[in-house]
Amino acid sequence: MKIAPSILSADFAHLARDIQTVQQGGADLLHIDVMDGHFVPNLTFGPAVVAAIRPVTSLPLDVHMMVDDPEAWIPAFAKAGADTLLVHVEATPHIYRALQLIQEHGVKAGVVVNPGTSLSAIEEVLPLVDQVLVMTVNPGFGGQAFLPAMAQKVAQLARWRSERGLAFKIEVDGGITDQTIGTVAAAGADIFVAGSYVFAKGDSPAKQMAKLRAAGQ
Ligand SMILES: O=C(CO)[C@H](O)[C@H](O)COP(=O)(O)O
């Protein structure tokens, strides 16, 4: 299992410090939530912030693009140093083209589904992608409650992956805690994004991530 702390819950005034803390604490990836104020009702980071983060960590940068017209932003985020770019199927009428564009920039491509979107919307692109991100909350904010019904989507993706001989990773994002990680881990998820649980609750980020790993076994 891979743990990807979301910097949405980090201290923005001490971003480099918090990133180094989670790297030293055992994070596998760094999840960066890009929000444009249109696709979701919140505003966060642009390519300049990703470029500033790139030299302060060796963790792979997992960039979740919650933006309209993602094709317009893919070149800038690739240049900024993203290792994976994740685009929402709901954000473009041309998801296949967007994923090809990501790969043309030498970056891993991921597709994201909102809680209200059926997996049928992404079935055709599964052979193309490196990652599928199943939103386990409505996107836009950290600290929301996990939606248990999303575990069924994870299980369906895991079945398709096995039956069709595909190799994409299954990622989950939203409301992941020591109480919720077990259900999506059992369903077949590989990558677990956690923001408020890692940065804002309880023990140090290292201990919080260790608790997630223990609960997800
Ligand atoms: O994509 C996101 C919000 O749109 C965040 O990554 C996600 O909500 C993580 O935060 P938390 O772990 O606090 O739920």
TrEMBL record:
<dbReference type="InterPro" id="IPR026019">
    <property type="entry name" value="Ribul_P_3_epim"/>
</dbReference>
<feature type="binding site">
    <location>
        <begin position="173"/>
        <end position="175"/>
    </location>
    <ligand>
        <name>substrate</name>
    </ligand>
</feature>
<dbReference type="Pfam" id="PF00834">
    <property type="entry name" value="Ribul_P_3_epim"/>
</dbReference>
<feature type="active site" description="Proton donor">
    <location>
        <position position="173"/>
    </location>
</feature>
<feature type="binding site">
    <location>
        <begin position="140"/>
        <end position="143"/>
    </location>
    <ligand>
        <name>substrate</name>
    </ligand>
</feature>
<dbReference type="GO" id="GO:0004750">
    <property type="term" value="F:D-ribulose-phosphate 3-epimerase activity"/>
</dbReference>
<protein>
    <recommendedName>
        <fullName>Ribulose-phosphate 3-epimerase</fullName>
        <ecNumber>5.1.3.1</ecNumber>
    </recommendedName>
</protein>
<feature type="binding site">
    <location>
        <position position="173"/>
    </location>
    <ligand>
        <name>a divalent metal cation</name>
    </ligand>
</feature>
<feature type="binding site">
    <location>
        <position position="31"/>
    </location>
    <ligand>
        <name>a divalent metal cation</name>
    </ligand>
</feature>
<keyword id="KW-0479">Metal-binding</keyword>
<comment type="function">
    <text>Catalyzes the reversible epimerization of D-ribulose 5-phosphate to D-xylulose 5-phosphate.</text>
</comment>
<feature type="binding site">
    <location>
        <position position="6"/>
    </location>
    <ligand>
        <name>substrate</name>
    </ligand>
</feature>
<feature type="binding site">
    <location>
        <position position="64"/>
    </location>
    <ligand>
        <name>substrate</name>
    </ligand>
</feature>
<dbReference type="InterPro" id="IPR000056">
    <property type="entry name" value="Ribul_P_3_epim-like"/>
</dbReference>
<comment type="pathway">
    <text>Carbohydrate degradation.</text>
</comment>
<keyword id="KW-0119">Carbohydrate metabolism</keyword>
<feature type="active site" description="Proton acceptor">
    <location>
        <position position="33"/>
    </location>
</feature>
<feature type="binding site">
    <location>
        <begin position="195"/>
        <end position="196"/>
    </location>
    <ligand>
        <name>substrate</name>
    </ligand>
</feature>
<keyword id="KW-0413">Isomerase</keyword>
<comment type="similarity">
    <text>Belongs to the ribulose-phosphate 3-epimerase family.</text>
</comment>
<feature type="binding site">
    <location>
        <position position="33"/>
    </location>
    <ligand>
        <name>a divalent metal cation</name>
    </ligand>
</feature>
<dbReference type="InterPro" id="IPR013785">
    <property type="entry name" value="Aldolase_TIM"/>
</dbReference>
<dbReference type="InterPro" id="IPR011060">
    <property type="entry name" value="RibuloseP-bd_barrel"/>
</dbReference>
<feature type="binding site">
    <location>
        <position position="64"/>
    </location>
    <ligand>
        <name>a divalent metal cation</name>
    </ligand>
</feature>
